[in-house]
Structure formats: C-alpha cells, structure tokens
Amino acid sequence: MRYLVRERLLGLGDDYWIEDEHGAKAYLVDGKAMRLRDTFELKDTRGQVLIDIRRKMFALRDTMVVERGGEPLATVRRKRLSLLRNHYRVALADGTTLDASGKVLDREFVIEYDGELLAHISRRWLRVRETYGVDVVRDDADPALLIAVAVCVIHLAEKERED
Questions:
Q1: How many domains does the chain have?
Q2: Which residues, at least 6 apart from 81, have a Cβ–Cβ distance to it below 8 Å?
Q3: CA 85, 87, 92 angle in degrees (round to 5)?
Q4: Residue 43 CB: number of other CB atoms within 10 A?
Q5: For 151, phi and psi rounded to 5 degrees?
Q6: Which is higher by pLDDT, 28 or 58?
Q7: Cα–Cα distance, 6 to 163 (Å, whole number)
Q8: How confident is the model at residue 10 (pLDDT cuts 50, 70, 90)?
Q9: What's the CA gap between 49 and 53, in Å, rounded?
Q10: Among 7, 34, 62, 145, which is least packed by CB within 10 angstroms?
C-alpha cells in the first residue's frame, strides 16, 4: 500500500494529512505546538490517536520515542558510524531492530528488517514539492508504525541539519 505524505511548510504545529493510494485521507500527523520538546500524534480519520511520537529531552544523541496506547513501541536514533549516507536504527520494544537508510533529507530512503525491505520512502514518484510517498511493501507490516518511523527519521535528520 502506498501512502502520500503532504508536509505543510511553516504550518503552526506542523499538521499534515497522509492519503492512501486512492487519494482518501488515512492518517493525520498532528504536531503539538508550544511544547518544550518535539511532539507529534499520528491519528486516524476519526481523530483517534494511534501513535504518539516525541523527542527525548535528555539523551546523548537525538532520539525519538514512538508509543502506542502509552506503551513504548520503538526508539529511533541515528546510527553512530554512518559516513556515506544517513542511517538510523529503530529499536522495537520486542527487541527487534529495523534499519532506515538512504538520503533522508532528499526523501529517498528505505526501512528494512534483517535486510528485507518493509517500506520505501521516495519523492521520485511525485512532482509536488514537500510531498513524498511511503510505499509499505509487506502486507503484514504495520503501516502506522512505518509511517511514524519515517516521520521520526526525517525529523531527526532535519534537526541535525539545523544544528
């Protein structure tokens, strides 16, 4: 299933819709303005919070935490040694590790588990500025989690570029 992410430039709170491949709204990324730390909620079309995303305040490296129902689901941080391309490690609560790597700032990267492709994030398919696609390639993958991971990775890369 392919999702279309339309980021809003300079939008208060960084809210934006994610559409499915048929153009129907699937998820809302609700950025929480006026918070001390970066916080987002991934909501369904009825406004129900599916996933909470927040930046850890006190960490040696920039880290984003993904929670579902108040329970930790994943931790996303940049891999220590990644010289040629952006490489992020996603540690799931069950001990599983995912890798996100590629040209993150260009919105051209993949999310993999043990070398197997789970999702491909790309701007190449689209002509609209500040829009990219998240192609979830496995039917048994959790699209909300993979979209949340993509949001985290992009957010961390942009924060790093700003610093």
A1: 1
A2: none
A3: 170
A4: 18
A5: -60, -45
A6: 28
A7: 25
A8: very low
A9: 11
A10: 34
Q: What pairs with residue 117 in β-bridges?
A: 112
SS3 for 24-85 is CEEEEEEECCCCCCCEEEEECCCCCEEEEEEECCCCCCCEEEEEECCEEEEEEEECCCCCCC
Domain that holds residue 58: 2-162
Residue 3, classed as helix, strand or coil, is: strand
What CATH number corresponds to the domain at position 77? Answer: 2.40.160.200
Q: Does residue 70 have a pLDDT over 80?
A: yes
Q: What percentage of residues in the chain have a pLDDT greater than 90?
A: 50
Q: How far from 19 is each of 5, 51, 52, 64, CA to CA, in Å?
A: 7, 17, 19, 24
Could you tell me the two tokens for 125? 């398919």
- Tokens standing for 109? 């990267």
Q: pTM, whole model, 2 decimals?
A: 0.86
Main-chain dihedrals φ then ψ at residue 152, nearest 5 degrees? -60, -50
